[in-house]
Amino acid sequence: MIREALQRLRHEGYVRSQRGSGSVVVRGETPGLRTFPPVRTIAGLLRSYEFRIHVEKTTASLAAKRRTAADLEELSQALDQAGSALQSRMFHLLGDLNFAFHRGVARATQNPYYLATLEMIPNVIGFDRIAMETLDASGLTERMSQIHDEHTSICDAIRKRDPERVSVQIERHIAAARDRVLERQRIEFLDDRISSELPTDSTML
Asked: For residue 104, which of 74, 86, 112, 124 is within the disulfide window of CB 3.0 to 4.6 Å?
């Protein structure tokens, strides 16, 4: 029984055989797990969104083909909770709620590798502080409402088992998120440049 357990642990990567020491525990990262590169540059950001579009198009397409009643219930709950947070203007909750929707789509593939991949991607999904910093109250509400409407349309395509439609919708959804982030980067660049050009003498203001 012990031998069988060790064989299973070796197969799963938790222990390895070492000459002179027998079986030793693998230390460090979770066996077999590789984390994604951190997003540190604009080029890295673009690559991450390129990867997300490719992965999530496939994910959503499979979800439309394989989803169950339980999957639809999970997606509906995520949408309802996000809608309630939006109506109550509790924008700080929308990041986790929007991510929960994407997680539900991945779970509907019935393939845990898609879910694991989604959870390892650097989280720039849905709502983040970019909108909070750049939009006033009315603009923020409009932006968050648009995201919610996009999620609702994606859910409807999955419900109707329409993989072609949902693939197009989620590509547009992620591309729109990418463009908002890039616009924020442009705003920051301009702000820094303008600040550096302002006179330091307060009498000039």
From this structure: 74
Residue 35 contacts residue 134 (beta carbons within 8 Å): no
103: left (phi > 0), else alpha (psi -120 to 50), else beta? alpha
- State the Cα–Cα distance between residues 34 and 120, nearest whole angstrom: 9
CB 127 within 8 A of CB 95: yes
Domain 42-197: CATH superfamily is GntR ligand-binding domain-like (1.20.120.530)
Please state the rounded mean pLDDT for residues 158-165.
98
Q: Which burial class, exposed, middle or buried, applies to 99 when counting CB atoms under 10 A from its CB (0-12, 13-18, 19+)?
A: middle
- Residue 85, exposed/middle/buried by CB under 10 A (0-12, 13-18, 19+)? buried
Q: CA 142, CA 161: separation in Å to the nearest integer?
A: 29
- Sequence ranges of the domains in the chain: 1-34, 42-197
Predicted local distance difference test score (pLDDT) of residue 137? 59
Asked if the model's pLDDT at residue 174 lies above 80, the reply is yes
Distance CA 197, CA 70 (A): 57
One-letter amino acid of 129: R
